[in-house]
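Known limitations

Structure tokens in this collection are predictions and should be treated as such. Users comparing against experimental data should check residue numbering before alignment. To illustrate the layout, the record for Ribose-phosphate pyrophosphokinase is reproduced below. The input appears on top and the generated tokens appear beneath it.
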Amino acid sequence: MKILAGNSNHPLAEAIADHLNLPLTRADVKRFSDEEIWCEIQENVRGEDVFVIQSTSYPANDNLMELLVVIDALRRGSARRITAVMPYFGYARQDRKSGPRTPISAKLVANLITVAGADRVLTMDLHAGQIQGFFDIPLDNLFASPVLTSDIRNKFEGQKLVIVSPDVGGVARARSVAKRLDAELAIIDKRRPQAGVSEVMHVIGDVKDAACILVDDIVDSAGTLCNAAGALKERGAASVAAYVSHGVLSGPAVERIANSPMSEVVTTDSIKASDAVRTCAKIRQLPIAPLMAEAIRRISEEKSVSVLFD
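Generated tokens:
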């Protein structure tokens, strides 16, 4: 087995390799003066089981193209099996046609990864579960909930806990976390008047005097979470924190979180933290390297991955 890191999240790749007691495979990935991406694998990979670790986060297009180029190089280097390890799967929010003449970009990305030569994909908390069906190769979708719930349990032990879904679409995710923690569930019904803007309408459930935990898969501009936190505080919540699988945290997100009534926003390190994120006292990342490493080990040894979540 060989572990190869793209440039999107090198610290995570190093941590995964450390958990597997393996060195990172040497590879040179660089850009020409016109920004074309070039790659050379600097070790023999013939007949090897290779795992390429690359989140397709910002800059999404560069990181996606880099992943495709690396996969192609491995295929031409006669790797026995190539697994694209994508802790964060970019373009997942474009999983359906949103209008008459719009693309389904998640399906296009699935096609690109497959045609490039990947034999399998390993990812975590896909925004839309049906994306698994966009691939004609095996895809393992891990869940961050064990990592998140362990931290929630340690931090909020003994408190009246309410798990809150920030929108109707995330109810199943929030219910799963609430069940793990034996906590109550609340739902925020919101209306989004335009892209990037959310308006909280109604809180379904009793949140008075409770420690409320907002649970979501992606925090991008943070408008939804901040508005939800305000609505919960208005209805008497004792405190509000957010636990999110993927911290995209684009645009005004960090400033919004810093000025919000939330005590903390906790994400995983599926996406490398920017300087602004690292210096924000209200944002914290949880490591997923142990989870990803164990999944990689099980795939390489042809063992079940689903038992990690039984």
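For this record: The mean pLDDT is 94. The first strand starts at residue 2 and ends at 5. Please report discrepancies through the issue tracker.
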